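This is your field. Have a critical look at the following sequence-structure pair:

***
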Amino acid sequence: MEVMEAKSAKRGLRRLMIKLPAMRRQLETEYAANLDFIGLCEAFEEASSSLDRSYRDTTVPSAIIVECEAVCAEIENEILALFVAFDVEESDTLD
């Protein structure tokens, strides 16, 4: 992973930790171990940054803001689904 990508993914992880405080430990653990999750962190950073810029720029149409919000929510849902899948795998392993 390139340095800029790594920084972007780390910023995305931090944003997710703020957004999902109850999952902070899980987020950090997964960040250290899962390349797919790191990619989602990077995508979340990019989407969140776009959303922040859209909020500040009064010329951005509301439809664009709604779309950015939807993208952020979709990435969050993907992350939550990823954790549900991990929980299922772990419980199957323990049985």
Q: What stands out?
A: The chain is about 85% helix and 0% strand. Residues 62-94 form the longest helix (33 residues).
